[in-house]
Amino acid sequence: MTNVSLTAEQVAALAPDAGSLASGRGLASERSWSGLGQSGEALWGLCQGSGSKPYQTQADLSGPAFRCSCPSRKIPCKHALGLLLLAARSPAATPASEPPEWVAQWLASRQQRAERAPGPERLRATADPQARARREAQREQRVRSGLEELERWLHDLVRQGFAQARERPYRFWDEAAQRLVDAQAPALAGRVQAMGAVAAAGGSAWAEALLEDAGLVQLLLAAYRRLDDLPEAARADVRGLIGWTVSRDDVLAGERERDRWAVLGRVVEPDERLLVQRTWLHGLQTRRHALVLSFAAAGQSLDPGGLIAGTVTDASLAFYPSAAPLRALVAGQHAAPEPLRAPPGELSDGSVADALVARAAALARQPWLWRLPVCLAGVVPVPRDGGWLAAEPGGQAVRLACDDLTGWRLAALAGGRPAGLFGEWRREAVRPVSMFAEGRLVPL
Amino acid sequence: MNQVSTASGWPELVSVALLGTERRDPPAPADPALAGLAGAASGGRRRRAEERLLSAAGSLAVLRRAGRLAPPAPPLPAPAPAEARPACGAAAAYRLTLLLDDQRALLQEWLRAVAGRGLRVPAERLPDLLDAATANHALRGDVEPVLGERGPWLAAQVPRWSWAAPLPATGDEREALWLTGTRPQRHRLFALLRRTRPDEARRLLERGLAREEAADRAWFIAALGEGLAPADEPLLETALDDRRQEVRAAAARLLARLPGSAFARRMTGRTVPLVRVDGGGITVALPDDLDEAAIRDGVLRRPSGGTGERAWWLHQLVAATPLSAWDTAGLSPEQAATLPVTGDLEEPLRRGFAQAAGTQRDPRWATAFLYVSPRLAELADPRQAALTGLEHLRAGETGIADSLQAPWSRELSEGALGLLLRLAGREGRPAGPAAGHWVHRLIAERLDPALAGEAARRLESIEPGTPQARQARELVQTLYFRREMYEELS
Question: Is A153 among the domain residues?
Answer without folding.
Answer: yes
